[in-house]
Amino acid sequence: MTSVLPPQKESTSGTYTFSSRPRALPNRSKYRDPVAELQEEPTQYGNIMYDRRVIRGNTYAQHILPVSAQPDPIEIQRQQEVRRRAAAKKRAKDQLRPRTPEPVEGRKHIDVQTELYLEELSDRIVETDVECQTDAFLDKPPTPLFVPAKTGRDAVTQIEEGELFDFDIEVKPVLEVFIGKTIEQALLEVMEEEELANLRGQQRAFEELRNAELAEVQRLEEQERRHREEKERRMREQREVLRLEKETAEKIAARVFAKHYLADLIPSIYSNLRDNGYFYDPVERDIETNFLNWLVKDVENTLDDHVLGRKVLDMLIREVVEKRLDVFQQMEQQHNASA
Amino acid sequence: MAHTRISNKMPPHIEPARAPIAFGRRAIPKLNEELASEDLVTRQCALASLCDLVHDPERAYETIETGCLENLKRLLRDKDSVVRRKTTEVLYELSVHNVGRDAFLQNDVILSLAELLDEPVDICRVNMHKTLEMLSEFTPGAAGIVDAGLVPQLVLKLPSELVEIQEIILDTLHFCLRVNVSQALASGAISILKEKLLHNSVAIRSKAAQALMGICVPLEGKNEVCKQNIIPILVRLLKDRHPEVAAKAAGSLMIATITTQGKYAALKAMAIPPLLQLVSSPVTEVSLNAIKAITTLAEAPEGRQELLNHVAVLESKQDHSSEIIRRAAGTAVRVITWKP
């Protein structure tokens, strides 16, 4: 049923080369024969997920082709490893797969097929199809009212006025409650107002007292203040007076002392002045200043004259002596020259 | 097959305007869930029921524990006015109880309430102001309101609001002024209060005088008061027919005349004769405040001179039944007869 070209054979004329050739799905019966499946030849197909040529992973990173066209020795090794591991896995799986147990001793397992022992049933029972259909519903007439047969006896009763209860007696507790509540409410309100009125009365009394006391306090304060101020003022005045008195006393004392001191002053002044020669006799003074000046000057002049005269005399004498000396020296020279 | 329902018909809904209240412990959580629903009618009914329940202190505590305050805060901004009104009522009831007030302070409800200051619907505003007033009555609450900077806004609202809201605002201010006066002074409260002193309504006059008393306590307040010539008005109010107005006016005077400036202003406005009249009034507060005012005025030499003639009146008060009046009268007599 399958038409599969061997995958190794590549068509030379085709544009594509397949590693997994597309094929139409075989038209299998719905309920497959398990025997027929086994006889199919295993098709080799390549899974693109495991195809080396398909780039997996991030496409933005460069997929660098290996430098040489030949696969790397490392790559070869790795692939061999992978293959070995796959084989090993397959072997392990095979071993683990449950198989039919080994035959018991003396027996042997044989595959048997019951096909040969199939027989066709030719003995068929004759069958016929029969149909049946109910008629459409007809309208049902209404069921008549079911009146059960009458049993028992008829009886009648009527409540007369005044038989259930007596209004006046029954209404009493209700009325009592009503009136009680109303009066209680009224009492409460009245009590509240009374309480308020009492409180207000107390408040008023208290306020009066408080105001009176406040006024008293302030008045006393004021009084205190005034008295104190008055006292202060008087004391200040008193102090002023004392101070003035003291000043006056001091002034008097100072004055007396000064007077006493100064009393002695004038005679001593006079004596001092006299000692320093400030009181003089004018005639004496005059003589001293004028007369004596002239006298002394005159004396000086006279003396100067005397001195001058003496000097002149001295000069004369000197000249004479010098001349005589010269003469004598000349004479001596002459004498010496002539001797 | 057995059902938990007894009859096919649901139990009759007695009050259509109120959500049915579940039994016992489940009541408040169920109402809390209904508060958060999308349907308007459910919310309204739930709020109505909650409003009734919260009168009871235990229920109020439960309400706060289950965290209804978050839902209530959100509902304050709801578009429907009935919802807002009921929410403010619930908050008012909660603020009556102490746990409610504490919870308000912890959960910043004050700021959410303050958003309603410009609310168009009157009743919501009334409830909101009542809540604020209740909150301000205790010191941490007043401190909270002052911290939230509401005092200037309240003062500014004062001239333009309805009469009953004005009363409530004046009360709130009175308590807040105990904590901090400077904010109110800064927003010109004294001039506004000055007008209110001459209002027709008795309550407003007395509350305005009370608020003035609070403002006068620190020194700046006293100076402002003298500067704006309020003391003559107060003296005029002393002759008012209604005792509460006179009492509060006397109280303001007693605090404002502590400074020398105040004393002379009061003496100039002839405050002594009406005060002496008020001393013999049967109402405790009136006579107490009047005696105290006389005491402060007696500190000034002119006042002392004039009051020396009236010492008898005060001495008669020294046998009064109330102990404070006895003490006050004793102090007054002592001050008047003091020699430097």
How many helices of chain B does DSSP assign?
23
Separate helix tally of chain A: 5
Query: Can you summarize the main beta sheet of chain B?
Result: none
Proportion of residues in β-strands of chain A? under 5%
Structural class of chain B: mainly alpha
What is the helical fraction of chain A, as a range of percent?
A: 55-70%
Shape of chain B: elongated
The CATH class of the largest domain in chain B is Mainly Alpha
H and E string of chain A = HHHHH
The total of beta strands of chain A comes to 0
Question: According to CATH, what is the topology of the largest domain in chain B?
Answer: Leucine-rich Repeat Variant
Category by helix and strand content of chain A: mainly alpha
The radius of gyration of chain A is 88 Å
H-E order of chain B: HHHHHHHHHHHHHHHHHHHHHHH
- Assembly annotation: heterodimer
Count of the separate structural domains of chain B = 2
Describe this structure in words.
Chain B: ARM repeats lie at residues 229-271. Chain B: Pfam families: Arm (PF00514). Chain B: This is Radial spoke head 14 homolog. The complex is a heterodimer of chains A (339) and B (340). Chain A contains five helices and no strands. Among the domains of chain A are: 169-241; 264-339. Helix content of chain A is 58%, strand content 0%. Chain A is mainly alpha-helical. The mean pLDDT of chain B is 83. Chain B has 340 residues and is mainly alpha-helical. The longest helix of chain B has 17 residues, at 163-179. Helices cover 70% and strands 0% of the residues of chain B. Chain B starts with 26 loop residues before the first helix and ends with a helix. In chain B, 46% of the residues are buried. Chain B folds into two domains: 16-138, Leucine-rich Repeat Variant, CATH 1.25.10; 190-340, Alpha Horseshoe (Leucine-rich Repeat Variant), CATH 1.25.10.10. Chains A and B meet through helix 3 of A and helix 17, helix 20 and helix 23 of B.
